[in-house]
């Protein structure tokens, strides 16, 4: 993880040396007239990918159509049925979990960014104020649920069995001194649960869509980034059979540039960590 932090801090220094230019010196456009359909799940991501679409058309003659979904499952369904070419929203654990549950072949071809997972509350200003028998809303998808429980452990609210890794479930809680209760909710509706619970763990993109900033959170799991597993980095994905598709890798190349990193900071209000130079991990490392 120390290496991961160094990559984050050094991204702007390294980009100029190691990211290949998008257009050849001769001005050739190998993919002129090609079209790629990309799916994502938030307003901020839409703004980012619209910027990349303009860049792709201007520099490479590629038409990039951006489709926004309102949940995490539909983009992968669309990848599998061929209505999407690539997607950009999910971390490595979600890919693994979704593939296992759906006999899928979704495959990460590049890392993009790390989003903090924030604990928000309409009632309390600190983690310490959360009361005995309090209710906390958690995302109901298995991969994000594991991260949410580990975030609560980092916050000092619970203890999780060390043996379960990143796919923790409620039954893996081995310490709960405040006798907290947990309400599982759809991640994209988590912000709507705030009036009815003591706190809710909300993904950054959905928090932003609800008008919340990571600065509004009473805790986020990236406050000590050394404790965040790099498997939680978001990715650009396609189907495994297309992992070497040169057109899709050209889109990755267009993403992995300094101007896109700057745009990323702009649309996410400096609330995310660029991770374009972090090597793709093997999901078996999550065991």
From TrEMBL:
<keyword id="KW-0472">Membrane</keyword>
<protein>
    <submittedName>
        <fullName>MetQ/NlpA family ABC transporter substrate-binding protein</fullName>
    </submittedName>
</protein>
<feature type="signal peptide">
    <location>
        <begin position="1"/>
        <end position="25"/>
    </location>
</feature>
<keyword id="KW-0449">Lipoprotein</keyword>
<dbReference type="GO" id="GO:0016020">
    <property type="term" value="C:membrane"/>
</dbReference>
<dbReference type="InterPro" id="IPR004872">
    <property type="entry name" value="Lipoprotein_NlpA"/>
</dbReference>
<keyword id="KW-0564">Palmitate</keyword>
<comment type="similarity">
    <text>Belongs to the NlpA lipoprotein family.</text>
</comment>
<keyword id="KW-0732">Signal</keyword>
<dbReference type="Pfam" id="PF03180">
    <property type="entry name" value="Lipoprotein_9"/>
</dbReference>
